[in-house]
Write a structure and sequence with these properties.
By secondary structure, chain A is an alpha/beta fold. Helix content of chain A is about 30%, strand content about 35%. Chain A has two domains: about 130 residues, Rossmann fold (3-Layer(aba) Sandwich), CATH 3.40.50; about 100 residues, LytTr DNA-binding domain (OB fold (Dihydrolipoamide Acetyltransferase, E2P), Beta Barrel), CATH 2.40.50.1020. Chain A has eight helices and 15 strands. By secondary structure, chain B is an alpha+beta fold. Classes of the chains: A alpha/beta, B alpha+beta. At the A-B interface, helix 1 of A face helix 7 and helix 9 of B.
Chain lengths: ~250, ~350
């Protein structure tokens, strides 16, 4: 068996050092190599892809991107690594982890517990989808897209609108388009405070609505389109949602 | 058995004279004595028309005495601190009676009969008022102890976040193999910190002791946060001697790290400014404000606890305010300046 490829993600350097020491202690029992470490989730995703990691030790409480969000982004990869959470306290219900067989270790970590978690990872245990959302339903800061074997992050704050097209949802920023995997309904539920639905197939950023424009008449009814900052495209507002959308701007 | 009784009684705040320099104490005395006087005037008036005249009469003899007594007590409050409770009480009674007697001729000239009987009556009322107030302050003292001080103590003991303890232990573990000496220092700091947290925290302490506690705490946080954490201290000369409630600053510094530094990806600065303005001590603390992380719990507990203790020690004379300005969260505390002996 080839050595297990491991990445460590923790914002505190002493904590990363400690995990390295403990991993060293486990080497005889479980051959492995640490292919990289990162101080935040964004960096961590890059290193995981580059190092083709098979297991990630990740702190839950980190600035910018929590360990939970980091793990959610990992899941868009074709072959995501096993995730082992390392946390100083159990704000997140410990039972939720246990029931769902996600491994978590509490700081300070014991070598024996770490070894057990690594063995489970080496045997192919992986996160099930949907588990992390239940543990921490807070909205993510990024949307993630698997592109050419790596994870591309799109900051939610840069998305102008989201539109369902055939099989995928397109996330449109000022500069480009990305295909995301989640359904429009899921995105609406998670980011309801950021986006508003203007049409059956479209969510737009609440903060970027600049006004409305009369669009074509269909069957004698006047239609409206919404004008968004940073986007030339005029998106139709459905008649059913018009009153609701208009009140957002006037109020 | 006897020992047990003693240890329970030690939890009682000892009876002590109120601090006559405190605005809250002074206003309590003023309000209650005047209310009693009004009631007295009402009781002595046979008809409603007589009431106004009675009030003027009672006030005329009461207010000068009350005023002079309060001024004397204010001036002498340092001396009372050195007396035992019983001696202090006798001293206050003596002052009240002396002032009443001394002002009596002046009141007689304002229209009283000046008879010996009237002097005895005045002295009697003065003694009665003093006794009632002493009883009131005694009860108030009892009400705040031991229940509240006990609850407060427990709240404090639970106060240092488990999160901090476990992260610090983890940081110390990371040092043991590579830098055993730093690990030793860190464990000593940790021990000291917990010793203070678990101590009986009811007496005021010198600010310099609280500051060294904060530094020990910050050393531990520096260990794991490294250059992300920096602290700017700006202290007026001499403030180290000021008396403050124990665990006044440490919880605020801990909050600043938790809410201001940990959620930030780059370096953040905590500013602590302590100034003396005449007889006031002003403490200001600020940290970067992260709007997105306001769901992190635990801020209000510490603030409420500190506010309550400031009130217990200084009544109306201390205040604690918070505000958000220029992307920073600021806390300001103003309290009376008292120097440690």
């Amino acid at each position: 068996m080839s050595p297990l490829r491991i990445v460590i993600v923790d914002d505190e350097e002493p904590a990363r050092n400690r995990l390295r020491e403990l991993l060293e202690d486990c080497r005889a029992e479980l051959p492995h190599s640490v292919v990289g470490e990162a101080g935040n989730g964004v960096e961590g995703l890059r290193i995981v892809a580059e190092g083709r990691a098979e297991a990630v030790l990740v702190d839950i409480q980190m600035p910018e991107m929590s360990g939970i969000e980091f793990a959610r982004h990992l899941l868009v990869m074709e072959t995501p690594p096993a995730v082992i959470f390392v946390t100083a306290h159990d704000r997140y219900a410990v039972e939720a982890f246990e029931v769902n067989a996600v491994d978590y270790l509490t700081k300070p970590v014991r070598a024996a517990r770490l070894l057990a978690a690594l063995k489970k990872a080496a045997n192919g245990a992986r996160l099930a989808r949907g588990v992390l959302e239940r543990i921490d339903p807070a909205p993510r800061r990024y949307l993630s897209v698997a592109e050419r074997g790596r994870v591309t992050l799109v900051p939610v704050s840069e998305v102008v609108f989201l539109r369902a097209e055939l099989k995928y949802v397109t996330a449109r920023t000022r500069t480009r388009e990305h295909l995301v995997e989640e359904s429009l309904a899921q995105l609406e539920q998670e980011f309801g405070s950021v986006f508003v639905r203007v049409h059956r197939n479209c969510l737009v950023a609440r903060g970027l609505i600049r006004g409305f424009e009369r669009a074509t008449e269909t069957e004698g009814e006047i239609g409206w389109s919404v004008i968004l900052e940073g986007c030339d495209e005029k998106l139709p507002v459905s008649r059913r949602l018009w009153a609701q959308v208009k009140s957002l701007v006037t109020s | 058995m006897r020992k047990k009784v003693q240890s329970i009684r030690q939890n009682d705040l000892p009876d002590a004279l109120p601090d006559f320099r405190n605005l809250g104490v002074v206003s309590r005395i003023l309000v209650s004595v005047n209310a009693a006087a009004l009631f007295f005037a009402l009781a002595r008036s046979r008809e409603i028309g007589e009431f106004a005249a009675k009030v003027t009469e009672v006030a005329g003899s009461l207010e000068p005495v009350l005023l002079v007594v309060l001024i004397v007590l204010h001036a002498g409050s340092n001396l009372f601190g050195r007396l035992t409770y019983a001696h202090g009480l006798l001293a206050v009674l003596a002052i009240v009676l002396a002032v009443t007697a001394a002002l009596f001729p002046f009141q007689a000239s304002l229209g009283g009969s000046g008879s010996g009987r009237e002097l005895v009556l005045s002295l009697g009322y003065a003694a009665l008022a003093t006794g009632s107030l002493a009883w009131y302050f005694h009860l108030r003292n009892r009400a705040f102890s031991p229940a509240i001080s006990e609850a407060r103590l427990q709240a404090l003991q639970a106060r240092i976040r488990p999160h901090f303890l476990f992260n610090s232990l983890n940081a110390v573990l990371s040092l043991i193999r590579k830098d055993p000496q730093r690990a030793e220092t860190a464990l000593e700091d940790l021990a000291e910190l917990f010793r203070t947290v678990m101590a009986d925290n009811r007496e005021l302490i010198a600010l310099k002791d609280e500051l060294s506690l904060c530094r020990q705490y910050l050393n531990l946080e520096q260990l794991r946060l490294g250059e992300r954490l920096s602290v700017q201290w700006r202290l007026d000369p001499g403030v180290e001697q000021a008396l403050v409630p124990p665990m006044l600053l440490q919880p605020l510094v801990e909050n600043a790290v938790y809410h201001g530094i940990e959620p930030g990806i780059g370096a953040g600065v905590i500013e602590v400014r302590i100034e003396r303005r005449d007889d006031r001590l002003s403490l200001q603390l600020s940290n970067p404000y992260h709007e997105d992380y306001q769901h992190r719990q635990g801020n209000r507990m510490a603030l409420a606890n500190i506010r309550e203790r400031l009130q217990l020690h200084f009544d109306l004379e201390a205040s604690l305010d918070t505000r958000i300005a220029d992307g920073r969260y600021e806390i300001g505390i103003v309290m009376p300046y008292r120097a440690a002996p």
